[in-house]
């Protein structure tokens, strides 16, 4: 089938060359197929262009052929052009002749490399460094392996002190050297705090230096009076969050606070015995930590923090002692018991004391 022709003769605009006589119906260009040009210099130029001039033979380029664009005539390079010279490699060095590598990175040039802080040394911001190489220990509880005493300081909330509006409690947990070990913060909503007061349920997150939640305390909404023996206080301890390692359960008692410290299997490992009166008047209030055989092995103390702090705020100071070789899971459960005791006996509602003799 031939291409349509334009009016008045000629060919259609989209067929710029005449159709060929090929039976397959293709189009053929008006010039012969491309072929090598005489002299081996490639294909012929297009219409309107002069042929390429023949270049010098390959031998004319000498040793610089691979370092300059072709075609360059033979001879020295043009002025201003820097050409690599042969045999410019460094001479062979004898074995061991190279200088020793620099071993002060990272850091300032010429300074010795930074050394790791020894165990127990403070980190930035006054934090205790984490002990290393502790087997069979939940992550984040390694601090407790080298500690037999903790100090817990509650942060003063000015809004709560002046208005009585209950805010979330925040605590700093330190060792005896004053180094920070943990940071604890209450996780509750505004309505729960101001409606339920000290009896409110809460989740408390305990964070380490790296802001990782290493402990989680959960207190459900329950009673604390001896008039309701079937609905007494409990607190669940998890490390890491979601893995229960112990519980604190209030025991029924009329005159003194009594608690059981239980492991993850529900076995009682320690007991807490409180005083008949929990009023803090110019002195400490102590809760004994007693083993199952009746011997005292530690204590939880609500420390006197000064008249102004005691009278106008519920920001309390606590201390806790336990044996050094006590399991870290039990130590963490004792720390949870300290927070439960704070809420039950020393947390104020509207800056009003709630302490009362016995468990009524």
TrEMBL record:
Keyword Signal (UniProt): no
Tell me which GO cellular component terms the UniProt record holds.
Answer: plasma membrane
Q: What is the recorded name of this protein?
A: Phospholipid scramblase
Q: Which family does it belong to?
A: Belongs to the phospholipid scramblase family.
SUPFAM superfamilies recorded: Tubby C-terminal domain-like
The cofactors named for this UniProt entry are: Ca(2+)
Record's keyword terms, sorted: Calcium, Lipoprotein, Palmitate
Keyword Calcium assigned: yes
UniProt source species: Aedes aegypti (Yellowfever mosquito)
State the InterPro entries in the record: Scramblase, Tubby-like_C
Q: Name one Pfam family in it.
A: Scramblase
Q: What is the lineage of its organism?
A: Eukaryota, Metazoa, Ecdysozoa, Arthropoda, Hexapoda
């Amino acid at each position: 089938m031939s291409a349509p022709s334009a009016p008045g003769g000629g060919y259609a605009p989209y067929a710029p060359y005449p159709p060929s006589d090929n039976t397959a119906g293709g189009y053929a260009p008006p010039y012969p197929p491309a072929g090598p040009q005489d002299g081996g210099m490639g294909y012929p130029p297009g219409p309107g262009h002069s042929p390429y001039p023949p270049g010098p033979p390959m031998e004319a380029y000498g040793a610089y052929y691979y370092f300059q664009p072709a075609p360059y005539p033979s001879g020295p390079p043009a002025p201003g052009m820097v050409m690599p010279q042969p045999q410019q490699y460094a001479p062979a060095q004898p074995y061991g002749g190279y200088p020793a590598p620099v071993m002060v990175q990272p850091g300032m040039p010429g300074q010795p490399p930074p050394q790791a802080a020894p165990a127990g040394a403070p980190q930035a911001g006054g934090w205790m460094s984490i002990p290393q190489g502790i087997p069979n220990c939940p992550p984040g509880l390694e601090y407790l392996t080298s500690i037999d005493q903790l100090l817990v300081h509650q942060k003063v909330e000015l809004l709560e002190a002046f208005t009585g509006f209950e805010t979330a409690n925040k605590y700093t947990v330190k060792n005896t050297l004053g180094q920070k070990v943990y940071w604890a913060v209450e996780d509750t909503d505004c309505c729960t705090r101001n409606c339920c007061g000290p009896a409110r349920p809460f989740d408390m997150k305990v964070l380490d230096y790296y802001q990782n939640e290493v402990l989680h305390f959960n207190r459900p909404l329950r009673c604390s009076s001896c008039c309701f023996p079937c609905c007494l206080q409990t607190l669940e301890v998890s490390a890491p969050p979601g893995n229960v390692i112990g519980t604190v359960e209030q025991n029924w008692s009329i005159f003194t606070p009594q608690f059981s410290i239980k492991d993850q299997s529900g076995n009682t490992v320690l007991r807490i015995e409180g005083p008949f009166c929990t009023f803090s008047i110019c002195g400490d209030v102590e809760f004994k930590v007693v083993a199952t055989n009746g011997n005292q092995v530690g204590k939880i103390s609500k420390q006197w923090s000064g008249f102004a702090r005691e009278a106008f705020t519920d920001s309390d100071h606590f201390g806790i002692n336990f044996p050094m070789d006590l399991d870290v899971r039990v130590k963490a459960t004792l720390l949870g018991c300290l927070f439960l005791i704070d809420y039950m006996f020393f947390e104020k509602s509207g800056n009003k004391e709630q302490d009362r003799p016995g468990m009524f």
